[in-house]
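Cont'd.
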Amino acid sequence: MADTTAYDPLGAVGTWRRRQAKLIIYALLGLFALYYVVPLAVVVINSFRSLPDISHNGLISLPHSFSLDYWSSAWSKFCVGGTCNGIQPFFFNSVAMVVPATVISTAIGSLNGYVLSKWRFTGSETLFGLMTLGVFMPGQMVLLPWARVLGWLGLTNTIGGLVLIHCVQGLSFTTLFCRNYYVNIPDDLVKAARIDGAGFWRIFRKIVLPLSPPILIVTVIWQFTNIWNEFLFAVIFSSGTNQPITAALIALGTADTGVHQYGIESAAVLIAALPPLLVYLFGGRYFLRGLTQGALK
Amino acid sequence: MASLTIRGLNKSFGSVAVLKGIDLEVKTGEFVVLVGPSGCGKSTLLAVIAGLESASSGEIRIGERVVNGVPPKDRDIAMVFQSYALYPTMTVRGNITFGMESRGVPNKVQAEALARVAGLLRIESLLNRKPSQLSGGQRQRVAMGRALVRDPELFLFDEPLSNLDAKLRVEMRTEIKKLYQRLGKTTIYVTHDQVEAMTLASRIAVMHQGLLQQFAEPRTVYDRPANMFVAGFMGSPPMNFLPAEIAPSGRAAVVSAEGNGQGPQLPLPDEVATRVTGGRRVVLGLRPENLTRYDRRWAEERPHLATIEAPVVVVEPTGAETIVVVRIGSREVIARFEANAPPSVGETVKLAVDMAKACLFDPDSEMLI
């Protein structure tokens, strides 16, 4: 268990100076918290303010009106790129992309990590080094190759194409996470299982996977958040009704009427941001725990 | 009949030769201990026998079958690891039956085998616990249970006691010996602890730098060590080595660090004297228990007794006995005294040396003469 008694660096100085120092610390922390919270607050408030209120009182202001209409129109009525179903279809495009991409890339990453840590072969370390190179590769570099590949496979402008891209692009991370976690599982466990008559898959299923939840949670959260929020591939490799929500938000900004619908835009942005936020709220704890925890107690 | 036969076994990791031409034959029902300092290759040898590492060259037979290239699960072996290697997410029951499940043993047979082993090791009450809920000694038992649930040709133990505290280690050592006496299964046991080797083994294989130094019964390894390495490794406190020269008569060793023929003379027993000639330089090996305060009754039982006068440097009482460091020539020598008659530091004591137990080594080859 973690040590819960906090270390107090000011334990040795007088009460007055301690108060002073604490005040400064909290003031600074408050300032930074404000810095992060204000933009979110502005968007949340604007999603409930009426258009005249915004145009009269400015974008950053306390609400003088309240309406839930923008949320429902953003979700299912507003016209984006010629169709008037709101961002709902794009939201489900994102779901259709992020779920398989997360599951597949995590599954393969886990398997990769298992092989690279427990079934080493000549060159496996080099292979691992090359795979992790992908972590540092900027997305722009792979745009052209992916365009060609999607063309060959006939997956241009499909959700399937984006799933493929995110699976492959995500492998570096998922492999890195899982491999570094599995390295801490004692090799003796694998040896004992081999003597017990278990093979490659049985050892993976019965011994490695049951030890994996902490790192799988980390990997799933990481992949889900990144793929959901991803913008570059979404905007380049999809168009029209096949766009994920991040790309569709742009189309929303250039709405048909020519008038900026701030309320609807704010609501749409919040809807788009909701899944990763929820994942963080419910899974963040496990994320931090998984990153810092060893494989075995 | 032999349960394990190893011929000309070599193992290298890259350019590092870890095992160099090992020959070993283990008879059915023997308890063989592989002992040596860390890095001597004993654990690698065990891994090669288990099939977890492959041999670079040489032949390994388990029973009558050559097993080079046979995967571990088909070698008819069971192994206990130093770390126990219990599957952390499974219960004790799951740990013990995992192997049988993997091999598709029917449930009824599994339950019987589990009950038998649990009874044997007295772990019935632990079956539903996870390894993390067990004490060190309990984990050790479960690890043995996992091996015992099979009825293999060979049991392999890789330093099974070294993670236990001193008291528990001695208890489990006795426990293992009892189990062996009861089951009589062929066992290969790796340890760096020479006391474990002496107490458990029917034969000891001493290893050093990838070479098998000696393979013999514990008594032989202790009394007639093949070379100075074995002599120094087995026994605690270790054997004393004194540079000496054989007197011109050929019937005594002259302990003389300077090599000038001056120094205390220690008469050699006849059977030793026949193996050396006068003037030869030797290393005289004396175990501490063969050096003690002169006592007439003690002397009467030992025909080949020599005496030396030596000043006491350090006195270390252990309770059961007293370890005394004395100076002979320019060398410090360890002797064992009875606990009730400790000498005082600075006193010159008359030491009795039991020359019947003395070993002579060649100073160049370090081999036993």
